Structures are given as structure tokens and as C-alpha cells.
Amino acid sequence: MNDDINRIRDLLPVENRLLWSDDSVAPRKRRKPNRHIEHDTQTAVLAYLRLHPLVAWAERFNTGAVKLTDRHGKQRFVRFAFTGCSDILGQMKDGRLLAIEIKSPTGRLSAAQRAFLDLVRDNHGVAGVVRSVDDVDRVLEVKE
């Protein structure tokens, strides 16, 4: 049985061999190390914001794009949100916009992200960068 599996594996293109557990087949692609940290932080921050007494609502906001093909073969490019939009958007109970950008401990803002956060702040919204749940109260300007 193992010989059959090995023969099948050997027929696969090299990039598909990554699906097999044998590390010697092909080098593994490096993932961005901060992606999981940011995701876990985002999940915790959203849970905290949904319970916070000053926050009316907060939701994760996807940014990106995809190319779609309709049934006639025509391709369309669909963009979600816009460049620089924060990871979390919401509203404070007093009506102000809430924009929170999640970053890993070593992550840096892009110019577009910085410009968006500045735009929100300049128009009396609440905006900031959060690297952990502990940073949320600082962004919300909560005095203990």
C-alpha cells in the first residue's frame, strides 16, 4: 500500500507534493508569521468591543478584491472596501465612528492606513492602532 502511495506522490507536480507529510519532497512555503497573531488579536478585540459600555457596535471589515466570471464568460473585478480601511469599524454610543487597525507587536501601518485613521480622528471619530486587547481602552480614551 505504501509503495502505491509513493508512486502516486511521485507523479504529482512538485508544488502539489506539499500536501504530503514527507518534508523532503519539496520546501514548504513561508507564511507571514504575524498573520495568526493579528487574527487572534482581532478576535479578542472584537469580543471586548462588543461588551464595552461605550461601544454601540463593532464589526470586522474585509478589504480586498476578486476577479469573477459571469455565466457569459465576462470577467469583472470586484473590490471589497478600499485601500487603507481599518480592520474593525464600528460606532460609539455617542454616534462617533470607530476605526481600529489591528497590528502585531512588530507590524507597521501603511501610508493608506495612517491616512484613514487620521481622517477619522480629524472628523471627530475614534481611531487607533491596537496590538493587544490592553490597547483598546487607550484608543477609546477610557479613564479608569
Quick rundown:
By secondary structure, this protein is an alpha+beta fold. The chain has two domains: 1-30, no CATH class; 34-140, Trna Endonuclease, Chain: A, domain 1.
Explain this structure.
The structure is a single chain. With 144 residues, the protein is α+β, with helices and mostly antiparallel strands. The protein has 2 domains: 1-30, no CATH class; 34-140, 3-Layer(aba) Sandwich (Trna Endonuclease, Chain: A, domain 1), CATH 3.40.1350. The protein contains 4 helices and 6 strands. It has helices at 2-11, 34-51, 111-122, 136-140, and strands spanning 55-60, 64-69, 75-80, 88-92, 97-102, 126-130. The chain has a 4-stranded mixed β-sheet, with helices on both faces. Strands 2-3 form a two-stranded antiparallel sheet. Strand 4 (88-92) and strand 5 form a beta hairpin. The protein is globular and about 50 Å long. The N and C termini lie far apart (65 Å). The model is unreliable at 15-26 (pLDDT under 50).
Number of domains: 2
Structural class: alpha+beta
Cα-based radius of gyration, to the nearest Å:
22 Å
Q: Would you tell me which CATH topology of the largest domain applies?
A: Trna Endonuclease, Chain: A, domain 1
Tell the overall outline: globular
Which residues form runs of ≥5 with pLDDT under 50? 15-26
- Following the backbone from N to C, one meets helices and strands in this order, namely HHEEEEEHEH
Strand content: 15-25%
What is the first-to-last residue Cα distance? Answer: 65 Å
The portion of residues assigned to helices is 25-40%
Largest sheet: spatial strand order: 1-4-5-6
Q: Based on the structure given, which CATH architecture of the largest domain is correct?
A: 3-Layer(aba) Sandwich
Number of strands: 6
The number of helical runs is 4
CATH domain class name of the largest domain: Alpha Beta
